[in-house]
Design a protein that fits this description.
single chain, TIM Barrel, 8-stranded parallel beta barrel, two-stranded antiparallel sheet
Length: about 425
Amino acid sequence: MRLGVFVQTPGHHVAGWRHPDAVADGWPNLGLMQRIAATAERGKFDMFFLGDGFATGYDEHPSTIGKFEPLTLLSALAMGTRHLGLAATASTTYAEPYHVARSFASLDHLSGGRAAWNVVTTAYDKSAAVFGRRHPPHTERYAIAEEFVEACRLLWDSWDDGAFIGDKANGRFVRPGSLRVPRFEGKYVSVKGGLNVPRSPQGHPVLIQAGSSGPGQALAARIADVVFTAQNDLGEALSFYSGLKAQVTGFGRRPDQVLVMPGVMPVVAQNAREADELFAELNRNIDTRQAFTVLSERLGADMSVYPLDGPIPDLPQTENLKSRAALLLQMARRENLSLRQLYYRVAAARGHLLLVGSPTEIADTLERWFRAGATGGFNVMPPFFPGQFDAFVDQVVPLLQERGLLRTRYEGVTLRDRLGLARPTRSSESHAIPRP
């Protein structure tokens, strides 16, 4: 079972920051980030994962109002960790391939081969204003993303492995014939020039993709090493897993070279009663404006205009998070949820699997999903940090290890090694440049 920790500080629950065991003061807090990373390594986690976004405002989720730039933070954390994968989101809609390729290649070198890029298209149109751009429609964003990733792959392959030889005797800093300059010309992306970073320890950083819509799954099947997803029902998770693996095969890739890791929010306490009380306490502390902002973004409509204790209204299809809106509406219909009930679910786990219970109950559910073949692991989303992440690592992880589901020591050198992923061979789709 692979495990990542999805770090949204001070917590994933919209009111998690108000709990006495949450660190919410002195933000931004590098010390808290270092503590979470150390705890993840102690728990033998595969990855420390940072989501990202560009908007801020009074009514945003507390974890997005203020946050570190991800690559800067991960570079700092690389200095204090030895085994933990370091994963971050970077947008293909609001960035340039050269900058993204250079940043992640640098992180891979700094960390000794532990970098991972979560490829996102940026769902929300409010990000466009920050950059003074038009927000592309859903389908176009994924077309841009496909070209963007291909350009980055070519940039990462600019140099041969071991090209930087530093041969003082013969006056050769790099080996002649080792540079191949990409010549990529797409509809949306163009790259003509090599990357000034040596080929990284992993060849390419691990590629993560989190889209579950039709275009999102197609992109994941083509390019992803790891797929982050949101399912809250075992049957739906099994269907997603098998469907995605079939698409992977259709693109000529081996199914075992793509790991599927749904998000899970575990609310951990000594017994079910205490867990229910903790979850109820979190819900009592919800800021209504922030919760409605999160719900409205996920559903693509202003939900504050509807009766809170009424049924979920019929909503038009959104151009933002299409798959998440569909998942939430499907869950609401399946469980006959009122808008208030859905509001609480989204304020907590935003559509991901929500588990409220004792360590044994949570471990049982994770084991059931894993053994059923619905997942290769989980992206753990604590309701607040550090208290609930400490509880998961100290109380749930040992149970998974005792059951033979989770490693007890790290093996391999790079993140690819630990995930069982092959190192990419160098692309030949670039032009060799002889030494003048």
